[in-house]
Amino acid sequence: xxxxxxxxxxxxxxxxxxxxxxxxxxxxxxxxxxxxxxxxxxxxxxxxxxxxxxxxxxxxxxxxxxxxxxxxxxxxxxxxxxxxxxxxxxxxxxxxxxxxxxxxxxxxxxxxxxxxxxxxxxxxxxxxxxxxxxxxxxxxxxxxxxxxxxxxxxxxxxxxxxxxxxxxxxxxxxxxxxxxxxxxxxxxxxxxxxxxxxxxxxxxxxxxxxxxxxxxxxxxxxxxxxxxxxxxxxxxxxxxxxxxxxxxxxxxxxxxxxxxxxxxxxxxxxxxxxxxxxx
Length: 279
Ligand code: F6R
Known about the structure:
There is one protein chain. This protein has 279 residues and is of the alpha/beta class. The protein is built from eight helices and twelve strands. The strands form two sheets. A nine-stranded mixed beta sheet has the order 2-1-3-12-11-8-4-5-7, covered by helices on one side. The chain has a three-stranded antiparallel beta sheet with strand order 6-10-9. Helix 1 crosses helix 2. The radius of gyration is 18 Å and the shape is globular. It starts with 11 loop residues before the first strand and ends with a helix. The relative contact order is 0.17.
């Protein structure tokens, strides 16, 4: 017997890529969880997922993450684009978030990250790249206009998300509500610490505030792909799937979304694996 609710209660499909590579796929439902042997295979599968989305609809509108997790995703997408297996020339991109108070040219900014890891190496049209302006004097207007741009683009086709160890998505920290829109937020100390790698490993140098797309905007995306790797994410992933749907763990709101794919490595699945062994 399992302690706590099981995945079936969330009308989820549960498919596991076992170390042999042979997938064991459950009944087709709306929330799909795939567990991969390694970080590399997780991100390769994510790149295939994103490539399939773009190959099926070249004008796809993508909502994109930064951070450590998607680094290999971007490397993969770049090499597929350069090998002519992926045409990114007609996509429109929106990024999830940006630090507040630093400019696009600051080396720690997500603007810089995206140029370095992705945009400088792929033919996404510059006019189709959208990022929040961390130097705006009027964050409310900037955020409202970002939501309007997403709407004008026809909404997000695919939102690609990472997850914080505290369950945040985008920079929607615990306490963020289901109806939250793009806005200025205060970052938790652990979130600043996990971004220190962009600021010479100095957590105090990470801006204390950020602009982020809201939960409501994420939930309006047609499809969501959430990525998690490493043991540090295991508890958040477990709670996202098994705990209450609550602002206390913003990623849990994804269970309200009609089409979510979750790709994680075996380390991030550590707590789920314990649960599985009890089935
Ligand atoms: C970044 C973002 C964040 C990260 C999350 C995980 O754009 O939206 O939610 O996805 O903090 O970060 P990493 O991948 O560095 O563990």
